[in-house]
Amino acid sequence: MAVTTCLTWMQEKVLQNYFGEKQFSLLYKASVHGFSSKGLLERCSNQGPTITVIYAGDYIVGVYAQNNDKEEYVFITLFVFQETEISECKIGPFQLPMVFQDNFEFYVNLERKRMYISPETKEKLGLSGYISFQECEVFRCEDLLDKRRMEGVIELKEKLLSAIRTYKPYGDLVHQTRILLLGPIGAGKSSFLNSVKSIFRGHVTNQALVGSYTCGTSDKYRTYFINDGKNADTLPFILCDSLGLSETEEGLCMGDIPYILKGHIADRYKFDCTKPITPGHDNYIGSPLLKDRIHCVAFVFDANSVEHLSKEMVSKIKRIQRELIKCGVVHVVLLTHVDTLDMIMKGDLMDIYSCLPVKLKISGF
């Protein structure tokens, strides 16, 4: 059974950010490996930078050491972490074993589950009184994107790109899957599309217009074939961009959505916010084939504002969802700007779906 930390996801992220975007690897947990100073030192010495986390009721006392060589004297960062606030002070120099032996400034007695901090240091940290604790953990601190992790990132990227290149629509009924991007004006639909095209072309491209206009920059229905710069093939999906949704009359006309889904609207049709397309229009496809239909809809939302959507916008989205179910079209949520969310670090982007802020953002869908 794997040994897990008592830190919550948020506590771990706060500490990782505070000490310079570090990745924590649990080396020692007192309740599992024993409340023994000797046992701790045997497991944790010569591991490079470490952080010791001591759980003392409603707050955490911690020790961060840049080097934990038994023989070397180093200054350590002693800190107190309560809720989301951290106070710290530098003490030492110490040899690592001295932290777990009687000394005049600070030491931890694992066997008795007690901690001594000098009155002067207590005052700096805002502590008072007798300190006992229930648990002690030690982590190795590593750079988030060291050489080993960078190799993992590159490997993961190549696997994902290969999976996309070799994807085949179900039953070979069509050669390419049509994916419609729908979302509020300014959510980042066109920017996402440009990013996808840039990745596969191997250089930056801005084919789809982007901007911050309140009425949106995509006023036409566009279908984008994605060319693969690696082998000159066209990828097995088509991205379809449209005018964004709005609470006002400036956005996509709701009456156009069934026509888009059923394949009646041709590329470059210019939307009219006040009325849907009609069968007599030059861009109207009278008898669309299966390949012309939308096979998947991606609702695109800005991760920083998705929980602040207006009642009118939520109502429109639910109405569209009902239409999608009626037409048998699958739909997914696509969050943009996830890298700018609080507590998200570079290393999280490898497994973004497991990150608590992202989970909370998509839980409503």
TrEMBL record:
Keyword line: Cytoplasm
Top-rank taxon, per record: Eukaryota
The TLDc domain, residue ranges: 1-142
GO cellular component: cytoplasm
Function according to Swiss-Prot or TrEMBL: This protein aggregates to form microtubular structures.
Family, as annotated: Belongs to the IFI44 family.
The protein's name in its UniProt record: Interferon-induced protein 44
Source organism (scientific name): Camelus ferus
